[in-house]
């Protein structure tokens, strides 16, 4: 019979493939990180530009909004109303004073905003147009008619290359009723252009302020550049793009980043554009570095593989063969190396390991015992402070009443309680000592639960008084009955403790008459007790169950059942064989 040997790759090939996979993975990871970083930086740049555009555009919009509000307030000015409706009833002095006040208000409006170039009020009744500088030429009928039509559709009106904010009084004017007041605010196009141009700190971009009704447009230059004309034509034919956001547009083999900020108040959109190459130029350098890293990675891959082949393969093979001998039971194997390097140290430690292996095998059992004892110590230490949570609150309540006699009694019980858990480090005590400690605990709890719960404890059978049991195993079960089984019982609560001997095993039963435990909850507790190695919950009943099994064996511990009156019956099974301390 021929045995077919499994074909394996050489160490060199494995190393080569491993390093290849590592280099490729690192290369791919670097490429992904670089790509992600580029996108992140690009997004941050765009967000920064959007923030700047939003800031300047919002400042412009806020200022113009304030001017519109002032215009609306001035339309209802008392002096304008008097002059418009009751000029004939005013004296010349009153009329002059009213005109002067109107001029001052118009001057205040003009100087209050950087974007206001002039303010005029036309009053048809006196056939005069008032401005901050005095009387100016009246608007023509054609101008008034056109302004009335345009004002119904847009907040900003273009008239003879002037950008105006227009108001009429009364506001709702039919074509058959002439206005009483015509209010015009001329905006400064150079100042608007200068404000928006502050966004471009590189002086390589530009801006366009576009009216959605195509009545006017403000460019970044006095004479629109070719790029601005192309952008205006493109967005004029694509009105859906006139909304807030970032877009990319190709013009004359140059790609531009266009930041749009829409204004529903002004019915317009600000377009700020920058050459993409100038903004994202630093990101292009990273692509060149990827190629250089690729070449360097290949060279490192081949060089490192050859070096590791000569340095590691041969001594590693010797070590593998020695391990195989040990695996087959040969504990006399020994390996040596001529060179003084890490493998030489590894060989020496291997030889020492083999020589100590027999000793370690003998120590395994002892170590297992120590491990179980350490686990037992840990579980017990978790129980020791368990009673601290509530005891001091009871003392506090009694002292506050004050009830000095009961404070003295409970403090004595507390002293006995803590003396018991701290007087020595014994793992096992007599059942008599454990029960005395438990009774001290019960006395303390009686102060806490007052008349709600009554506890009955049988006398310990004489044949069980001096058997050794785990320290602090009974108190958590009693506490579980108080805290969970009878937590909502207001009166007539009952806890009973009884003892029974059967086949040299001692059964301690703790029952309560609580109605809190449902069938589902009982099943959950029974399932947890069936898997004691799951120590996610290392307090209370599960803790005691685990301790009893560690000491007496898996057949001992806690079993649960329901009492005839509906409460919980906890049965602790212990071995009565004498146990030394």
UniProtKB/TrEMBL annotation:
Residues 310-362 form the HAMP domain. It is a multi-pass membrane protein. GO terms for cellular component: plasma membrane. The keyword Membrane applies. It is found in: Cell membrane. GO terms for molecular function: phosphorelay sensor kinase activity. Its main location: membrane. Signal peptide: none annotated. Keywords: Cell membrane, Kinase, Membrane, Phosphoprotein, Transferase, Transmembrane, Transmembrane helix. Pfam families: HAMP (PF00672), His_kinase (PF06580). This is Sensor histidine kinase.
């Amino acid at each position: 019979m021929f045995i077919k040997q499994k074909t394996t790759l050489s160490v060199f090939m494995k190393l080569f493939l491993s390093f290849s996979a590592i280099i490729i993975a690192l290369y791919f990871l670097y490429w992904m990180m670089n790509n992600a970083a580029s996108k992140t930086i690009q997004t941050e740049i765009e967000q920064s530009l959007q923030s700047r555009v939003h800031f300047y555009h919002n400042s412009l919009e806020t200022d113009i909004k304030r001017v519109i509000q002032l215009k609306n307030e001035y339309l209802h000015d008392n002096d304008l109303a008097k002059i418009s409706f009751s000029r004939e009833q005013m004296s010349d002095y009153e009329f002059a004073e009213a005109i002067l006040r109107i001029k001052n208000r118009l001057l205040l409006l003009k100087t209050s905003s950087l974007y206001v170039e002039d303010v005029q009020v036309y009053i048809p009744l006196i056939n005069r147009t008032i401005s901050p500088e005095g009387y100016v030429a009246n608007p023509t009928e054609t101008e008034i008619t056109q302004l009335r039509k345009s004002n119904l559709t847009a907040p900003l009106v273009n008239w003879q290359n002037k950008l105006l904010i227009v108001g009429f009084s009364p506001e709702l004017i039919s074509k058959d009723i002439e206005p009483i007041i015509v209010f015009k605010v001329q905006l400064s196009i150079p100042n608007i252009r200068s404000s928006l141009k502050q966004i471009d700190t590189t002086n390589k971009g530009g801006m366009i302020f576009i009216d959605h009704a195509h009545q006017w447009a403000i460019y970044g230059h006095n004479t629109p550049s070719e790029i601005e004309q192309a952008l205006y034509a493109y967005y004029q034919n694509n009105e859906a793009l006139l909304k807030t956001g970032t877009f990319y547009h190709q013009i004359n083999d140059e790609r531009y980043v266009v930041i749009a900020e829409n204004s529903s108040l002004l019915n317009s959109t600000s377009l700020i554009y920058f050459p993409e190459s100038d903004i994202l130029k630093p990101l292009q350098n990273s692509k060149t570095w990827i190629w250089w890293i690729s070449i360097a990675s290949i060279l490192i891959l081949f060089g490192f593989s050859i070096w590791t082949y000569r340095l590691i393969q041969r001594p590693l093979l010797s070590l593998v063969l020695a391990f195989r001998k040990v695996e087959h039971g040969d504990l006399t194997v020994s390996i040596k190396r001529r060179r003084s390097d890490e493998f030489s140290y590894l060989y020496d430690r291997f030889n020492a390991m083999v020589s100590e292996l027999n000793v370690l095998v003998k120590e395994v059992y002892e170590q297992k015992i120590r491990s179980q004892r350490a686990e037992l110590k840990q579980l017990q230490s978790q129980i020791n402070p368990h009673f601290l949570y509530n005891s001091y609150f009871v003392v506090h309540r009694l002292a506050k009443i004050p009830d000095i006699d009961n404070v003295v009694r409970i403090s004595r019980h507390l002293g006995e309680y803590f003396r018991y858990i701290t007087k020595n480090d014994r793992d096992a005590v007599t059942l008599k000592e454990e029960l005395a400690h438990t009774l001290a605990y019960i006395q303390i709890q009686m102060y806490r639960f007052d008349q709600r719960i009554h506890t009955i404890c049988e006398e310990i059978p004489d044949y069980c008084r001096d058997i050794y049991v785990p320290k602090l195993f009974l108190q958590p079960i009693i506490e579980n009955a108080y805290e969970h089984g009878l937590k909502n019982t207001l009166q007539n609560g009952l806890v009973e403790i009884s003892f029974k001997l059967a086949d040299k095993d001692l059964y301690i039963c703790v029952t309560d008459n609580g109605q809190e435990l449902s069938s589902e909850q009982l099943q959950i507790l029974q399932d947890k007790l069936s898997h004691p190695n799951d120590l996610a919950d290392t307090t209370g009943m599960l803790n005691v169950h685990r301790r009893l099994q560690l000491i007496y064996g898996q057949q001992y511990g806690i079993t649960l059942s329901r009492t005839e009156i509906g409460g919980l019956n906890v049965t602790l099974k212990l071995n009565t064989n004498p146990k030394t301390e």
